[in-house]
Design a protein that fits this description.
By secondary structure, the chain is mainly β. It is 12% helix and 43% strand. The protein folds into 2 domains: 52 residues, no CATH class; 113 residues, Immunoglobulin-like, CATH 2.60.40.
Length: 202
């Protein structure tokens, strides 16, 4: 059974000092954290054995936004890009706003928060607040039924982001009010018929 090393760098240029776990045998493993970039590695004992770790900047997800609000018909997974964790969504139907908690330490110096929001759930964003203080440092664009909201210069210690728009999931209040109105009219009509001795046909 072979013993290998996992050493960052290339056989041509040698180790670059980013990581070197020394010798490792079959069945053994190690953990290495990476930032965005490309990291070549090789085995110093068998220099023809090489590899490359490629780390790209991707998007994160906050699942089931809106699942604990209204009838749950318009739940969505929030896609976002940020140097911290976006957590727990809180919806306020009366102000047509949605708030997100921000957690954790920054993993890089890019303090821009990009949110990919379904336009059917929240659209025409009118204001953005960071820790309940309104900021003008945001832009919004519309791409294939998605509102791309970019919030610049989010402080590294910010605790929350609140977004206010013209619609908010799931518009439950409007639907409930319509159902209530129809039900009330129906009850009044049936009561009136009963008093007049009219029996509705079924």
């Amino acid at each position: 059974m072979d013993i290998h090393t996992v050493t960052s760098g290339t056989p041509l240029n040698g180790p670059d000092g980013i990581f070197d776990i020394g010798e490792i045998g079959p069945g053994e493993f190690f953990v290495q954290k990476f930032t965005v970039g490309e990291f070549p590695y090789y085995c110093t004992l068998h220099p023809w054995r090489t590899g490359l770790v490629s780390v790209v900047s991707g998007h994160n997800y906050l699942p089931n936004v809106g699942s604990d609000f209204g009838d749950g018909a318009n739940v969505f997974d929030l896609e976002y890009k940020f140097n911290r964790l976006v957590d727990r969504a809180s919806i306020d139907e009366s102000t047509k706003s949605i708030s997100f908690e921000l957690k954790g330490n920054t993993i890089n110096d890019d303090n821009t928060l990009t949110l990919f929001l379904p336009s059917a759930s929240i659209s025409r964003i009118s204001s953005v607040s960071i820790d309940e203080v309104i900021t003008e440092e945001f832009t919004q664009e519309f791409e294939d039924e998605i509102t791309v909201l970019v919030i610049n210069e989010v402080p590294s210690d910010a605790k929350s982001i609140t977004i206010t728009g013209t619609t908010i999931i799931p518009e439950f209040g409007t639907i409930a009010a319509m159902i209530l109105a129809v039900a009330t009219v129906s009850i009044i009509a049936i009561s009136a018929r009963s008093r007049l001795g009219i029996i509705p046909r079924i």
